Amino acid sequence: MAGWAGQADCGTCQVKQSAVQGTGCGSRRGTPTDMATLEPEFLFVYGTLMAGVRNQWSRRLWRESGLPVEAKVPGRLYTLGGYPGMKDSVDGQGGWVHGQVARLPDSPALLADLDAYEGAEFVRQTRTATLRDGRCIPVWVYMYQPEIDENQRIWSGRFTFSQ
Fold this sequence. Notes:
Layout: E1 7-9, E2 14-16, E3 42-45, H1 56-65, E4 69-74, E5 76-79, E6 84-87, E7 96-103, H2 108-118, E8 122-131, E9 136-144, E10 153-154
Parallel strand pairs: 3-9
Antiparallel strand pairs: 1-2, 3-7, 4-7, 4-8, 5-6, 5-10, 8-9
């Protein structure tokens, strides 16, 4: 993943800085931070915002952010009809949600528009994503808030539009 510098220990998200350009697991200045004080510059997506999905929001996200990077985040994925919702694992059990990471542009307008698109049932929160190469980065992710029946769970952690 060219241009994304730095490495993090996923257990604590403390930076093991290998370069001070780009990101690492911290602020835009490349300095080490922990998850409690950080504002991620990446967005993890797992459904209708993934690259290749034909809607205006997905096209806009990838036009402004560049190429997607495969990643996974601990959690549980559920089908909500034509789109998925992600919830945290319960008692540390739950597996992984698979998706893509986008590097966000410096403009706050994109995130504000995506927040509106996701609606009140989804809240943008910080999590740690594990990239294909094993590095961990802080990301924003839209978490589904309402209660949901376990029968709607997608056990593979991968959403497809045929579900």
